[in-house]
From TrEMBL:
InterPro entries: Cation/H_exchanger_CPA1 (IPR018422), Cation/H_exchanger_TM (IPR006153)
Principal subcellular localization: membrane
Name of the featured protein: Sodium/hydrogen exchanger 8 isoform X3
Reaction(s) this enzyme catalyzes, per UniProt: K(+)(in) + H(+)(out) = K(+)(out) + H(+)(in); Na(+)(in) + H(+)(out) = Na(+)(out) + H(+)(in)
Gene source species: Camelina sativa (False flax)
Length: 728
């Protein structure tokens, strides 16, 4: 992050220099010791994750405490922790720019890539308001309070620098709890998305004030130029890398390793290009890149590759978070203990707690109710290393490190541990009546499922029969269910069609429809572009479940109709082959959409009926679904009557794809049972994959008659009265 520190060269504070010089004779220190510290941190983090799993103790708080303990031991033992101590000092001395460049791209890309893009579109205005004006208001409020009440004679630029430094926020604990408690996607997306934008805006604000503190030009023209260049430039670079990488992924076929490598390399390369080469915000660049991937590449990776990609990024984010928080604890401990003149003064601790109060007040004013992330700790470390010059004294740099470390610790411990209490106070941890009823239904079905499993496995030809009471004694989830099975349809009978129940069931139905679309994409029944359109229609319908009946066909209807500009295509000006291509492409897309819509709704209706039977709420939602499918059925019937070749070609493609997938599964099964060995499997797999690749890139094409005959024979294009919804 060379653009942050400008002309200021990294500086080691006097306390740190003295501490290092006292132990400069450690000839056994080896750069490889850094790996020992990283490995030890991951082992400790993994052990704590397993130990505190299911408890109310936030994982990040535990990591920070571990880091503080390690840093305190290293300092207290006068650097006699051996190899681990050497590793701690290597990591502590790493340039903060390098830390940001190593950890931030992975953390930012994973967060933005896993977000719900549809919800981002809905909440974009609120997120921009919170992360833009909200951060600026919070920064100026905090800077003003520091300037007016702290006794350090800092000028306004330095005070605002600390205010901007403490503006970077992260809602890890909040979002995790909200998801666990079943909060709405809109709320979790708003908090998570605001945090991502907040990170980017806060670092840009920090860069601005840091340049001003370091004596660079600070007139309004240069400030506006800096802000516009950082924001628009970052968006442009992020979009450019996103477009290039998505195009690249289109040429990758079922190669998980290549797909993961593309996403990993492009995130780091985009960050470096923006931060070091273009001099704009790398954080905003990676955030835009991740959101672009979430919007346009979610169907580019299918099936097992899709799961592997998300698992990889979850693992990368977990490793990065573990190392960052433990390292932050080490930096806090080393910074506090080495800065004795500051940390050993009671007044400094008093002002730390006062600053914590100021931070909470400023975030309330700025509407940023989240948990501080250690990004501000890294930036504070950067200020300490850049201090000790004409513009920023070493004492000020040490105070910045002391205050940022203290705020990180207090917000993680206090805010992180009290979040669940706040959610309980706001009654956000209680399940709605409809959700409780669904749980009861599921429990009843669990008993029936367990009984079926016992019937299938209870008698064994070799071992004989099993004892059901013993089974239930070991399966504790069944103990409270036997003998007290409530009617699973209770509450959904006639006269009890509560709007909340219907809304909840519409949501579950549409989720089932979307799941069916994913399955059809994996099976090759629909293309990636068709899948994107279908998924978007479900997202839009989910927004309206509280006020409208099922309406996901509303978003698909314009893509099935023939727009008015197709009249122009009949003129002699347009080449006939181009007209044929456009019309056939439109027809094929409309048929894909209609058939997939009908199939997904049929699957979801069957699932809902199997789960709720003939209850009134199920019948209501099923009836809405059947009404939704009327136009799609009519469209396919018109195509079948007027131009059956289209449906035949589409069905041929689907069957071919299904057969090849079935052969692929057959080969894997032969390998699983030991009838095929590695080289044989590889050969057969390559042959099938080659056929699949050819099918995707060169599918069976439709041979059409000349355009005049086609126009004359197709009522969808000729006769507007044949189907009133379709236009030429």
């Amino acid at each position: 992050m060379a653009s942050i520190i400008g002309a200021a060269s990294p500086y080691r504070s006097p306390e740190k220099a003295i501490s290092s010089s006292l132990f400069s004779d450690e000839s056994d220190s080896n750069p490889v010791d850094a790996v020992i510290f990283a490995g030890t941190s991951l082992v400790l983090g993994t052990a704590c994750r397993q130990l505190f799993n299911g408890t109310r103790v936030p994982y990040t708080v535990v990591l920070l405490v571990i880091g503080i303990v390690l840093g305190s031991l290293e300092y207290g033992t006068k650097h006699n922790l051996g190899k681990i101590g050497n590793g701690i000092r290597i990591w502590y001395d790493i340039n903060p720019d390098l830390l940001l460049a190593v950890f931030l791209p992975a953390l930012l890309f994973e967060s933005s890539f896993s977000m719900d893009v549809h919800q981002i579109k809905r909440c974009m205005g609120q997120m921009v308001l919170l992360a833009g004006p909200g951060v600026l208001i919070s920064t100026f409020c905090l800077g003003a309070l520091i300037k007016l009440t702290f006794p350090y004679n800092w000028d306004w630029k330095t005070s605002l620098l600390l205010g901007g430094l403490l503006g970077a926020t992260d809602p890890v604990a909040v979002v995790a709890l909200l998801k666990e408690l079943g909060a709405s996607k809109k709320m979790t997306t708003l908090i998570d998305g605001e945090s991502l934008m907040n990170d980017g805006v806060s670092v840009v604000v920090f860069q601005l004030f840091f340049k001003m503190v370091m004596g660079q030009n600070s007139d309004w023209g240069s400030i506006i130029k800096f802000l516009v260049q950082n924001s628009l430039g970052a968006v442009g670079i992020g979009l450019a890398f996103g477009i290039a990488s998505v195009i690249w992924l289109k040429f990758v076929f079922n190669d998980t390793v290549v797909q993961i490598t593309v996403t990993l390399s492009v995130s780091y390369f985009a960050y470096y290009t923006a931060q070091e080469w273009a001099g704009v915000s790398g954080i905003l660049t990676v955030m835009v890149l991740g959101m672009f991937f979430a919007a346009f590449a979610r169907t580019a990776v299918k099936g097992e590759s899709h799961q592997s990609l998300h698992h990889f990024w979850e693992m990368a984010a977990y490793i990065a978070n573990t190392l960052v928080f433990i390292l932050s604890g080490v930096i806090i401990a080393e910074g506090v203990l080495s800065g004795r003149r500051i940390s050993y003064q009671g007044i400094s601790w008093g002002f730390l707690f006062l600053l914590y109060l100021y931070v909470q007040l400023s975030r309330c004013v700025g509407c940023c109710v989240t948990i501080t992330r250690s990004i501000c700790k890294t930036l504070g470390h950067m200020i300490q290393q850049s201090s000790g010059n004409l513009y920023l004294s070493s004492e000020t740099g040490t105070r910045f490190l002391f205050f940022t470390g203290g705020i990180v610790f207090l917000t993680l411990v206090v805010n992180g541990s009290t979040t669940q209490l706040l959610l309980h106070f706001l009654r956000m941890d209680t399940l709605t009546a409809s959700k409780k009823r669904i749980l009861e239904y599921t429990k009843c079905e669990m008993v029936n499922t367990a009984l079926k499993a016992f019937e299938n496995l209870g008698d064994d030809e070799e071992l004989g029969s099993a004892n059901w009471p013993t089974v239930t004694r070991h399966v504790t989830s069944l103990k409270d269910l036997e003998g007290g099975q409530a009617n699973p349809h209770k509450g959904y009978e006639a006269g009890n069609l509560d709007p909340t129940n219907i809304m909840d069931m519409r949501i579950r139905f549409l989720n089932g429809v979307q799941a069916a679309y994913w399955e059809m994409l994996d099976d090759g029944r629909i293309t990636r572009s068709t899948a994107n359109v279908l998924m978007q229609s479900v997202d839009e319908a989910l927004d309206l479940v509280s006020t409208n009946s099922l309406c996901d066909w509303r978003g698909l209807e314009p893509r099935v109709h023939f727009p008015n500009y197709y009249k122009f295509l009949q003129s002699r000006i347009i080449p006939r082959k181009l007209v044929t291509h456009l019309i056939v492409e439109r027809l094929e897309s409309a048929c894909y959409i209609s058939s997939a819509f009908l199939r997904a709704h049929r699957i979801a209706r069957q699932q809902l009926h199997d789960f709720l039977g003939n209850s009134d709420v199920a019948s209501t939602v099923i009836s809405e679904s059947e009404v939704e499918g009327v136009e799609a059925k009519q469209f396919l019937e018109d195509v079948r009557d007027s131009f059956p070749q289209v449906l035949s070609v589409l069905k041929t493609r689907q069957v071919t794809h299904y057969v090849l997938n079935h052969l692929n599964g057959y080969i894997k099964n032969l390998e699983k049972v030991g009838l095929l060995e590695g080289k044989e499997v590889s050969h057969l797999h390559d042959v099938v994959q080659s056929d699949l690749k050819k099918l995707v890139r060169n599918p069976p094409l439709l041979k059409l008659p000349n355009i005049e005959d086609f126009m004359a024979s197709n009522p969808l294009l000729k006769d507007r009265s044949s189907f009133r919804s379709y236009h030429v």
